[in-house]
Amino acid sequence: MGWRGLTEWGRDLLRIIFPEVCEVCGRSLVKGEQVMCLHCDVSLPRTRVHTDDFNVIHQRLAGSTPIDRAAGMFYYYRESEYARLIHVAKYGSRPVVARRLAEAYARELMPDRFFDGIDVILPVPLHRSKLISRGYNQSQEIAIGLSAVTGIAVGDNLVARRSHSTQTKKNSYSRWVNAQGVYDVDCGDELEGKHVLVVDDVITTGATLLACCEAIHRVAPTARISVLSLAVTHLR
Ligand SMILES: [Zn+2]
Q1: Which of 130, 160, 155 is nearest to 140 (CA)?
Q2: Residue 72 C-alpha to ligand 1 middle, in angstroms?
Q3: What's the N-to-C CA distance of the chain in angstroms?
Q4: Within the chain, which residue ranges are assigned CATH 3.40.50.2020?
Q5: What's the CA-to-centroid distance between 102 and ligand 1, angstroms?
Q6: 27 C-alpha to center of ligand 1: Å?
Q7: What's the gap in Å between 44 CA and the centre of ligand 1?
Q8: Digits of tens for pLDDT over the chain (236 positions)?
Q9: Would residue 155 be called left, alpha or beta, if left means φ above 0 and alpha means ψ between -120 and 50 degrees?
Q10: CA–centroid distance, residue 97 to ligand 1 (Å)
Q11: What is the Å distance from ligand 1's center to 232 Cα?
Q12: Would the pTM count as exceeding 0.90?
C-alpha cells in the first residue's frame, strides 16, 4: 500500500490499522523512522569502506577488470538480526525495503562525493523466469532508490541471458563458474567512455558482480566501473 498523497491524518489513521514496524527488531516505528528504528539504525554494522582505494570489496572483485570505487552499506552475518533486511528485500515481497535502504545509503555517501562523475546506474539483472516468480528485481529497486537521491539515471544495459542455479551452497570457485556466461550487455557502445555504477543487494564471493563488470569491460573497455551493494557478507 502506498502512503504517498495521504494527509497526515490519513497516515496516522493507517498507522493505527497497519502500523509500520522496524524490519530488524519488530518495534513500531515512530514518525521520521523508515525501515529501521533509530536504535537498530545506529547499531547497523556499517562497513564505511567506500573511501578506501582498495577495500574488502575490491579484494573480492580482484581480476582482469579494474574496479574504480566500491561501496557496501553494512556487513551481513547470516545469523544476525540484520539479515532480515536483505531477506525481506529479496524474498519477502517488500521491494520498498531495498529502495528505502538504498535512499538512506545514498544520503550517507553523498557528502564523500561517491557519486561524482557517475553517468549511469546499472542493476544486476534477474533472468526473466526469476523476475516472473519473484515479481521484482531487488537490485533494480536499489538502483531506483539511489537514483531518487542522486538524480543519476538507471540503465537497462545489463541483461541475464540465462538463469543460474542458486548459489547459497557453492564455494567461491563454483560460484564463479556458475556466473560465467549468465550476464551480457545490450547497446554496449552507449557505455563507452562512461562511468557506470553496478549495483547488487549482497556481495558474498563477488562472483555475480564480477561477471557483470567483466561483461561491461568486454563490450565497453573504456567504461569506468564502480560497484555498490547494500550488504557485504563476512566470509569465514
Ligand atoms: Zn529496530
Answers
A1: 155
A2: 21
A3: 40
A4: 45-233
A5: 18
A6: 6
A7: 10
A8: 455 566 767 766 666 666 789 999 989 999 889 999 999 999 999 999 999 999 999 999 998 899 999 999 999 988 889 998 998 888 888 899 999 999 999 999 999 999 999 999 999 999 988 898 889 999 999 999 999 999 999 999 999 987 766 555 567 677 766 777 889 999 999 999 999 999 999 999 899 999 999 999 999 999 999 999 999 998 76
A9: beta
A10: 14
A11: 20
A12: no
Q: How far is the CA of 30 from the centre of ligand 1 (A)?
A: 11
Cα 55 to averaged position of ligand 1 atoms, centre (Å): 29
C-alpha cell at 226: 564502480
Q: Max Cα separation, the chain?
A: 56
Alpha helix segments (H runs only) across the chain: 8-17, 38-43, 56-60, 83-90, 95-109, 128-134, 138-150, 172-179, 207-219
Residue 5 pLDDT: 64
Closest among 152, 139, 43 to 106, alpha carbons compared? 152
Q: 33 CA to middle of ligand 1, Å?
A: 10
Topology (CATH) of 45-233: Rossmann fold (3.40.50)
How far, in Å, from the CA of 130 to the mean position of ligand 1? Answer: 30
**Lookup result for grid cell 579494474:** 66
Distance 84 CA to ligand 1 centre (A): 11
Give me the DSSP letters along 120-189: EEEEPPPPHHHHHHHSS-HHHHHHHHHHHHH-PEEP--EEESS-----TT--HHHHHHHHTTTEEESSGG
How many angstroms is it from 183 CA to the middle of ligand 1? 37
